[in-house]
Amino acid sequence: MDKNTLLSQLEALLSAETDPVANMANTAALLYHGVTGLNWAGFYLLKEGGLVLGPFQGKPACVRICVGRGVCGTAVQLRKTVCVPDVHLFPGHIACDSASQSELVIPLIKNGVILGVLDMDSPHKNYFSQEDRAFFEKAAEILLKNCCF
After folding, report:
1. 3-145: which CATH topology?
2. What is the number of alpha carbons within 13 Å of residue 55 lying toward its C-beta?
3. Per residue in 19-28, pLDDT tens?
4. Which of 55, 104, 135, 141 would staple 128 via disulfide (CB 3.0–4.6 Å)?
5. For 87, which DSSP code?
6. Which residues does residue 4 pair with via DSSP β-bridges, in sequence order?
7. 124, 88 in Cβ contact below 8 A?
8. Strand order in the sheet with 64-66
9. 11 CA to centre of own chain
10. Could you tell me the CA-to-CA distances from 4 to 27, 77, 134 in Å, in that order?
11. Whole-model pTM above 0.85?
């Protein structure tokens, strides 16, 4: 599906609701089913100094991730998007699903506070482009705009 259409659908889906869990669940489902080439799409939330699994689509995942560890923890520590073309070459990569080959993680920052991350995995190496990065960052912006964290 066209990514602009997906963003419009996401805006419409989230605009009437402010609950973060409901909106993260719908965001994960829309992205997972709307973007080809993903094997996991979901969220980790920053709680008590670490990341805890939130709403997602895909196989069961790691429940807790330390800040600074793996791609998700690194994105939190750096407070910036991290795109990894080959997760097997990323120092400290956490292999929740051995099928994952590349990963894109966007930190969720609202009013200067980091709340968690949006995490996308693909079973293809070098899967995520700059266009994909911009798209998923925009999806994260739409989510944050429509949630009361």
Report:
1. Beta-Lactamase (3.30.450)
2. 15
3. 999 999 999 9
4. 104
5. G
6. none
7. no
8. 64-66, 50-58, 40-47, 113-122, 102-110, 82-84
9. 17
10. 15, 30, 11
11. yes
